[in-house]
Amino acid sequence: MTTVSGSAVRDPMALRTAMVAELSEDTIRSEAVAAAFSVVPRHLFAPGESLDVVYDSNTPLVTKTGPDGTALSSVSAAHIQAVMLEQAEIEPGMRVLEIGSGGYNAALIAELVGPQGAVTSVDIDPEIVARARACLQTAGYDRVRVVQADAEYGVPEQAPYDRIIVTVGAWDIPPAWIAQLSEHGRIVVPLRFAGLSRCVAFDLAGGRLVSHSYCLGGFVPMQGAGTYSETLVPVNGEATLRMDGPDPGFDVPALRKAVHAPRIERWSGAAFDMPDELELFVVTSASHVPFLYASQQLVDQGVFSPAVTHGTAAVVEGGSFAYRTKRENEGLGGWESGVYAYGPQAEAVADRYVGLLRRWAADFRRRGAARIEYLPTSAGVPDGWSVPKRHGAVAVSWR
């Protein structure tokens, strides 16, 4: 909540100004994006929500939940919306397709494209479509087209698009999105692969999509034909391996036994920071790297470190496995990376994981060191590390 001379300020314009000032410190880089956030009244897209919540830059606004309380739709946090709009580099006069309708983001895009541009927003849920239309009209953005359809097939009637911005978690990139992109178009999408999600700005290049930039980001999963489900491999009632692809045949009985056997620890001598970049390197530098999740009870028992409660990349070999940890090391400027390893081959799997930590620290310890590509099936089989999708494959290389 913004304060002036110690008094709470609940004026929407003042709160919006404060939010833009905060975003401009580390997220918003362009005057155009700052101007859009300064103009669009975010609170009109979240009726009934308190103003301090609406204008908190890191808080998503859930607009629909399922019977179990799971979020089915939301207005994304302003922070991630700003990140993706900066990735998109939208210019006046562009034609933009937004996949996933909340209303607010479409209004921001409308400000960026201006009166000569065009914005189409598509959602599969009729309730969300009606809500988005009503909010856009109230806020004065009724020139935005809001379409009810399965976004798997895009909106061909308004194509081609200079930008496609996807505001739902996508497991794949449907052929329709690429077909409806203009010659020099860009897709900004929270793409899920290898058990993690990254917001990737893809440029069209020679029949494939090549990353212009990427960053950490996750969204409510896509519905309709693009729905995906992860593979869960229960090791026991308190620990689970999760991955996007099929179970490669983990030796579950051996892993279950390893969980409660003594563990070993190994330290890399390398600094630990930028965990999202390090994690991306680990999962794309080996095959079949699942994410290990475990209960707080096992953490309290000392079996695992707290990292497993949120999921951590695990290297698995037969009945042995290892996952990343850290410890304080002032000589390295703060933290040192290491691993805990379990099972009869704990030494070997620990050495393998530590080797990855050291290689990343020596060669790729920076933002944007990965090159992420999406190759439609027609583009052939990618070289190096890749993961198959329904309509193509995601390939990642390091430079």
TrEMBL record:
CDD domains: AdoMet_MTases. GO terms for molecular function: protein-L-isoaspartate (D-aspartate) O-methyltransferase activity. InterPro entries: Methyltran_FxLD, PCMT, SAM-dependent_MTases_sf. It comes from the Bacteria. It is an enzyme of class 2 (transferase). It is found in: Cytoplasm. One of its GO terms (cellular component) is cytoplasm. The keyword Flavoprotein does not apply. GO terms for biological process: methylation. Keywords: Cytoplasm, Methyltransferase, S-adenosyl-L-methionine, Transferase. Its EC number is 2.1.1.77. SUPFAM superfamilies: S-adenosyl-L-methionine-dependent methyltransferases. PANTHER family: PROTEIN-L-ISOASPARTATE O-METHYLTRANSFERASE (PTHR11579), PROTEIN-L-ISOASPARTATE(D-ASPARTATE) O-METHYLTRANSFERASE (PTHR11579:SF0). Belongs to the methyltransferase superfamily. L-isoaspartyl/D-aspartyl protein methyltransferase family. This is Protein-L-isoaspartate O-methyltransferase. It comes from Micromonospora sagamiensis.
